[in-house]
Design goal:
6 helices; mainly alpha; globular
């Protein structure tokens, strides 16, 4: 009986996560477009987290390239594209220096585009899972179909956020130097 309860609870948690995905995406967009104060500790934590995630992601793409053609190549190209997108995001962000603090508001259209990219990636993953669950007999082609593109979508997001947080950190340091110089 306890095993049935544990399985039922696990099934409920999975269904709840799937049902709440649209709400999580909307909240991610709202948080992503909010005005924020730039903080050194926050940007440092984000840089370290994104760098670590990016390294693991590229390593995973390298392993996947043993079975999925062009996985590593497409991942690296998309990561570079995401880095360029991060620079565009920095240029389009609204920056507000206020005394010793610096506030920024990311560009709504860029945040929407990245959110839609993540949404499309999740929808594709659900669709491919549904196809696999229906019993597609050729698992090798099922695993390879779209896997490199899905990895590329993730690499765009990681490259964007790594570059964006590096830029926020740099801009904040420049602002702090300027603010200290004007007080002297």
């Amino acid at each position: 009986m306890p095993a049935v309860l544990i399985l039922g609870f696990a099934f409920f948690v999975i269904l709840a996560a799937i049902a709440l995905t649209p709400l999580m995406l909307v909240q991610r967009y709202r948080i992503g477009t909010a005005r924020r104060r730039a903080r050194v500790w926050s940007s440092t934590v984000n840089i370290v987290g994104m760098a670590f995630s990016s390294a693991l992601f590229v390593a995973g793409a390298a392993v996947a390239s043993l079975w999925v053609p062009n996985a590593l190549t497409q991942t690296l190209a998309a990561f570079a594209g995401g880095c360029v997108l991060g620079l565009v995001g920095l240029a389009l962000s609204h920056w507000e220096p206020a005394g010793r603090s610096l506030h920024y508001t990311p560009n709504r259209w860029l945040v929407l585009g990245i959110t839609l990219l993540v949404t499309a990636r999740l929808a594709f993953g659900f669709w491919r899972s549904w196809q696999g669950w229906r019993g597609t007999p050729d698992y090798a082609s099922w695993a390879a179909a779209g896997a490199a593109g899905s990895l590329a979508a993730g690499a765009i997001v990681l490259g964007h956020y790594l570059t964006y947080w590096l830029g926020v950190h740099r801009r904040l340091r420049q602002h702090e130097k300027t603010a200290q110089g004007s007080r002297a």
